[in-house]
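Two proteins follow. First one:
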Amino acid sequence: MLNCPYRANAESRFTGTRDTPRVRTRIADPLLLAGSAVVVGGGFALFAAARSDLAELFAAMGVLGFGVGGFSAAMPGVILAVTPKSETSSAMSFNYVVRSVGYSLGSAIGGLILAAGTGPGHLFPDDSAYTTAALVGIGAMAIPTLTGLALARRRSSETNS
């Protein structure tokens, strides 16, 4: 049980969430969001490139979990920074709904890619299907990375004005 991949992912996600408040004192929330998305993308890249043994899978899942934890912890700060105080509860509720839909959509897309990569009569997908799923994940992480950078640039120009 101690060496199961799910546990490695859950522990690194906890670490990413727990360490984020300390990092937030030094880095603006939009940059933290972009950085966390880059870490998640790095985890996908690691999974795409190196998964021939269990240690590589644990490393990829650890990086992914750490990035997702940081991402989940940074998002409320980004939302609260641009939301009027009278609407914060609605905005945070909407964040949780969108996050749940995003997790579901990501799982469905990953499952679809793996199902499409499973040949007739085979129990498991081809190796290329796992690579394709990871590459789609990297592409998906471009969106929050660019959004976080754009928000940071906008915030920087507002504070310099």
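Second one, unrelated to the first:
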Amino acid sequence: MWRELAPGDRVTVFAWRDLVWQLGSGELRQDTTRTPDREPAVRLAVGLTLLVVGAVFLRGAGWLHRRRATRATDTPTAQVVVVMAATLVAAAGAATAATVTDTVWLALLLAAAGCTAVGTATVLLLRGLARRRTA
């Protein structure tokens, strides 16, 4: 690109978070030696994963408190295992959504859709197990 430019030509500098990663002039483009890293995507993935796990922990704490307050019988193992597996799947989906996309709103949308799908599947599975156990 430098051979094509003359003194006084306008050059566009592409920067991301104070890091110049490309120079351009019209249709000409030239990458610099440094490129933007994936640190923000990793932070978003970790944040979404912790958000999903934290929400499930809060839901589980409320469920456990309600069961103890009503002196309910012991919890079947399947209820605990299914919820733990669903949490891992939802957290993995949220982390994947954050690392695959570059836009925050799309990552949040994909994580919410994945959590909704996993939550619905979990409820249906637990209801099916409860019907089978009482029948």
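SUMMARY FIELD: The radius of gyration is 25 Å. The mean pLDDT is 78.
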